[in-house]
Amino acid sequence: MSTADFSEIIGPVVQRDGRSAEFFDAAGADQLAILRCTRCSHAFNLEARTCTDCGSTELVWDIATGSATLVSWAVVHHPPHPDFAAQVPFPIGLVELAEGPWINARIVGSDIAELSAGIPLRVAFIHPEIGDSYPVFQLDRDVATVH
């Protein structure tokens, strides 16, 4: 996992709540946290509350590898917040982590024309001066792909 210099990416302050604190602590340490069921080891994104495989509510934080695949994406043309005005257009992706969960995240560091379903991604982290660090994804150019 890496910290990239994406200093041009600014936005509204991202702040944790009680349920997301461990996720943001991990992001601050350049690690991607996911939830995992203690009973069956199924992995989930941060919104999960119950295991969909076994029904357990015993979920714990675990560190993901940071490897992922782009499932789909959309291009933001109209800034959802004034802080994004100078950054449009930019892609937001539906990303499948190697561990299985799907998450929505910003795709950074590449031209929109390079994106296609199935391309390999890897996590990077944004560490803003104010607010919590958070994950983004970039093309994993070290992984050979066949399209």
Automatic annotation (TrEMBL):
Superkingdom as given in the UniProt entry: Bacteria
InterPro entries in UniProt: ChsH2_C (IPR002878), NA-bd_OB-fold (IPR012340), Thioester_dehydratase-like (IPR052513)
Organism, as annotated: Rhodococcus erythropolis (strain PR4 / NBRC 100887)
ChsH2 C-terminal OB-fold domain segment(s): 64-125
SUPFAM superfamilies: Nucleic acid-binding proteins (SSF50249)
The name this protein goes by in its record: ChsH2 C-terminal OB-fold domain-containing protein
